[in-house]
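Hi L., both proteins are below.
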Amino acid sequence: MKIVIFILISFASYAVGRISHILGGDLNVPHHWIYGVLSIIIGLIFYKHDWGKWLIAFGLGMVISDFKDMIGCKFVGPDDVKIKKFWGID
């Protein structure tokens, strides 16, 4: 049951990341992979608690949804994508 919750939280945070990319991709704000990495770090510190594992799942979904920007070391700024799509990694 815990693995199902982990997967659901990961997908939900992926969806939040993709929606924020579509709706706010033209804003000059920090990229959401940064929040994902912070969530993973905090989750690893508190991994013995269930909510620590949930933070890791949340962070993984955020990082995956913005993986291309993380690899490119984009920290702040608008996305330069012309076609915004929900399914994908950007």
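That was the first. Here is the second:
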Amino acid sequence: MDGKRKSFAAPLALAVVLFLAGLIFGFYIWGVDRGDQVDYKQTLRETIDYIATIEHRNENLRERVAALETEVAVAREQRAEGAEQRTGEIASLKQQIQNLKNENQELKLALQSLTQQQDTGGTGPAPQQDRPGG
């Protein structure tokens, strides 16, 4: 009989402990005195005010986003125009470089011709030089 009593006492003790834990947890969540009546009209007013505030902020954000999108579009256009302008400047600089290379080549040939004349004692044809007034 003692064996049956002990095997019956353990589940009973567990059930009592769980019941007490549930009871304490229930009081913790829902409270003991819930005599206060909830003012639903006030809660609805507060909810409506909150929703109106959110809508107002949302409208402000939409305006700011539209302004920022416009600024981004303008910045992209300016960047594209700047890129086109730089492309033109690069082409112009390349042309100037080519002109300078050609001039450099002509000067090297003239220098080579003068050096050759000096080495031979001036027996070759004289290079043509631009003289002022002539």
